[in-house]
Design goal:
Layout (H helix, E strand, L loop, with lengths): L21 H19 L11 H11 L4 H14 L3 H6 L2 H7 L6 H19 L12 H9 L6 H10 L11 H10 L8 H10 L7 H17 L18 H10 L13
Helix pairs in contact: 1-11, 2-3, 2-8, 5-6, 7-8, 9-11
């Protein structure tokens, strides 16, 4: 695939034309996807296959919490309570103690119970089996109407659970890479970015390809495009990234040719 037309070389830097039209951003997203898949290996295996209700609980616990800590809290809930109905009906202090390892357990315990109560009221019980027969956008809207469920959680339930739906979660790493290469503006928060970034993907892509897109952007943010001191010198997206080129130029000795090597 050729480099997007919106990207051009200009001496020591490669600025993107601003603002990019939708077609230019879509081409940029595809090129970034292609390069990152070459690095991280696509297709990427799903990391687990939980029922959608389990995935919802897991996602709610994971907010602003390390994966290992939220996974530990999820297991603690499963060990401490015989069912999600028991979690819903337990004294909130008992739920809080079970998830003590997450960030803000005092807020997450009552919030989790509110979500479980809302599902019970709408469904007559605690299950999300009806989502399997829904269009992805309709299912996303249904989930997002639940208390405490935002765009990332809704997308995670559809994509990561046994539903294996076509939905694009956006975490902070994915969001950072997308901002730096110009897929979304700096001013766009994570929540609204879900709709914008998913709209850039080809409509014919299946759930696996959409999942791969999230995973490679997330992995790149974790392993290369760090929040502080990104490793721009070994980034395969460097010539697509105005911020990376600017950092590289600023760090180079005067007179040095900053053009990246053809093989990064």
């Amino acid at each position: 695939m050729s480099k997007p037309a919106a990207v051009r070389r200009a001496g020591a830097s490669a600025p993107l034309l601003r603002p990019l039209a939708h077609a230019g951003r879509a081409a940029l997203a595809l090129e970034a996807h292609r390069r990152l898949c070459a690095v991280y290996g696509c297709p990427i295996a799903y990391f687990h296959a939980l029922p959608p209700l389990d995935e919802l609980v897991s996602s709610l616990l994971s907010h602003r919490t390390r994966n290992a800590d939220s996974a530990r809290a999820f297991r603690a809930l499963r060990d401490r309570f015989p069912s999600w109905e028991a979690v819903r009906d337990a004294p909130v202090a008992d739920v809080e103690r079970a998830i003590a390892g997450v960030t803000w357990p005092e807020a997450k315990a009552p919030a989790l119970q509110r979500t479980l109560f809302a599902i019970t009221e709408q469904r007559g019980g605690l299950d999300l089996d009806h989502l399997a027969g829904m269009d992805a956008q309709v299912a996303r809207a249904w989930l997002s109407a639940l208390p405490g469920v935002g765009p990332k959680t809704a997308a995670a339930v559809l994509s990561f659970s046994e539903l294996r739906g076509r939905a694009l979660p956006v975490d902070s790493h994915h969001h950072r890479v997308a901002q730096r290469i110009g897929l979304i503006p700096r001013s766009l928060p994570v929540g609204p970015s879900h709709t914008v970034l998913e709209a850039l993907l080809p409509p014919e892509w299946d759930a696996q390809q959409v999942y791969d897109h999230h995973e490679v952007f997330m992995l790149h943010g974790q392993r290369c495009c760090f929040f502080r001191s990104p490793a721009c010198g070994r980034c395969v997206l460097l010539d697509l990234c105005p911020e990376g080129e600017s950092r590289r130029t600023a760090a180079a000795p005067a007179g040095e040719n900053n053009a990246p090597s053809p093989e990064l």
